[in-house]
UniProtKB/TrEMBL annotation:
Transmembrane segments: 114-137, 157-176
The UniProt record lists the keyword Membrane: yes
GO CC entries: peroxisomal membrane
Keywords for the protein's UniProt record, in alphabetical order: Membrane, Transmembrane, Transmembrane helix
Bilayer topology term: Multi-pass membrane protein
Annotated protein name in UniProt: Peroxisomal membrane protein 2
Pfam families in UniProt: Mpv17_PMP22
Species this chain originates from: Hucho hucho
Family note: Belongs to the peroxisomal membrane protein PXMP2/4 family.
Subcellular compartments: Membrane
Entry annotated with the keyword Transmembrane: yes
């Protein structure tokens, strides 16, 4: 008697899910993007905490429980900031640089990476500072330690980029070597 395999996943389910998402995008574009951003942002924070816990467990250091306030803050940020701001920015880019504009893809990429990404990262640090109820000095410290290195790689003169990348790599390799121990 022949045995018929049953699929583990119903591929039609994925198609229906995508179809429903497209309907929601058409009917409620900002809300759909905002909710999606909130969920994915929270999941990103949870993933980060899980990876950190796994690393600490492997090292034999004490592992903290999942901090629910982290995913909550990221969900709020995704819902209220990432979704709406990204929606309007990309709509603005479509109007500013339609596909008929020569080199529109390059221009969009440059606008996104040189203007939007640095501003959005600064906004992220600012909003997270508010959501974490931390002081202005904490915000300034975070900007100095995380924001400026991001900006420098985007604005370092061409002749110094390899040197700059090598200096960053020096610390990155030192970090990787310490993790491997």
């Amino acid at each position: 008697m022949p045995v018929q395999s049953l699929p583990i996943r119903d591929s039609a389910f994925h198609v229906r899910l995508l179809h429903q998402y497209l309907i929601l995008l058409k009917n409620y574009p900002i809300l759909t993007k905002s909710v999606t951003s909130g969920i994915l942002s929270a999941m990103g924070n949870l993933l980060s905490q899980a990876l950190e816990a796994k690393r600490k467990a492997k090292e034999g250091t004490p592992v903290k429980e999942i901090d629910i306030s982290g995913p909550a803050r990221f969900a709020i940020y995704g819902l209220l900031i990432t979704g709406p701001v990204s929606h309007y920015f990309y709509q603005f880019m479509e109007v500013l640089m339609p596909t008929t504009v020569p080199y529109c893809m390059v221009k969009r990429l440059l606008l996104d990476r040189l203007i939007f990404a640095p501003a959005f990262l600064l906004l992220f640090f600012f909003v997270m500072n508010i959501l974490e109820c931390t002081w202005w000095a904490d915000f300034q410290s975070k900007v100095n330690s995380s924001y400026w290195p991001f900006i420098n790689i985007n604005y370092v003169a061409v002749e110094f980029r390899v040197l700059f990348a090598n200096m960053v790599a020096l610390f990155w390799y030192a970090y990787l070597a310490s993790v491997r121990k």
